[in-house]
Amino acid sequence: MRKKPKKAAPVRNLSQKNCLEIENVRKYFPIYKGVMRKKIGEVKAIEDITFHLRKGETLGIVGESGCGKTTMARCIMRVYKPEEGKILFDGTDIASFNDRQLKPYRPRIAMIFQDPFSSLDPRQTAGSIVGESLKLSKKYREAERYEERVDELFRIVGLDPALKDRVPHEFSGGQRQRIGIARALSSEPDIIICDEPISALDVSIQAQIINLLEELQAKLGISYLFIAHDLAVVKHISDRILVMYLGRVVEIADCEDLYNHTLHPYTKALLSAVPVADPEVESARERVPIQGEVPSIVNRPRGCPFHDRCSQAMDRCKNEVPKLKEAGNRHEVACFLYEN
Ligand code: SF4
Question: Which domain holds residue 340?
Fold first, then answer.
């Protein structure tokens, strides 16, 4: 049973309207063998993913490498078509839309990456990278309007438009990420998926990028899905946090509630691995043990995906998959310890 919850911490006064609803989304990848490419199995990358994102909200998505965060992001972007489930964007299910049907929706969901230029031509100027999607828009066909908008996007992210003729390697890591953000903003999206956008940056620069994302959200009302591999990174930017393990959602809660009333044994272990700056607090902290390594997603264990590593596992955990259930205070958890 969950301990009696303390009063929930105040949360931002957010719109109650959802801009994105993900319902029971699954994505499997086939495994082929031999010259005849015979299908011998499949990798169940994500299973039964269900959550929502409110307008103007930041939902932090946390989990170790290979837990399915990026597959989920690519399903939402509709780079991948999910096997099952719904992706409701402003109420319209885009999960099985074809390219023509997706066209009006594509600009409304943008993405920023850890290294925004890894897939781009290194000789392309920063201005043309930012302006790429403007060229497709009828609104900016006149050269003058196009240049004005590129300059405006540079200024919005705190860069001098005079830098727009430089190429990516002439910028620092923080400046490159600002260009990545300007590029994402160019299509005027409702949602930005931020895939580990600050992981490769120095701590002081990380803070600047977080501040910039928060300012843009306050000004433009954008919603963020903020993907990271540890809970320390998402704490300062998220309104709510979703924790994934081996392709499944194991816990979702308001940010303060997740840190102060952690429920799932996996989330407890992740949190106890986050170092605390105060050495006294750090040495007095209780460590939550986590056994072994993350199992391969190809050989996903039966039952609760965490049972091989969980110090509180019971017999039923080996055979049954716990469902994500409300445990009070808008806090959802997939664990038999909180069934009642
Ligand atoms: Fe541990 Fe069982 Fe809860 Fe899974 S369902 S986290 S194995 S107690």
Answer: 255-340
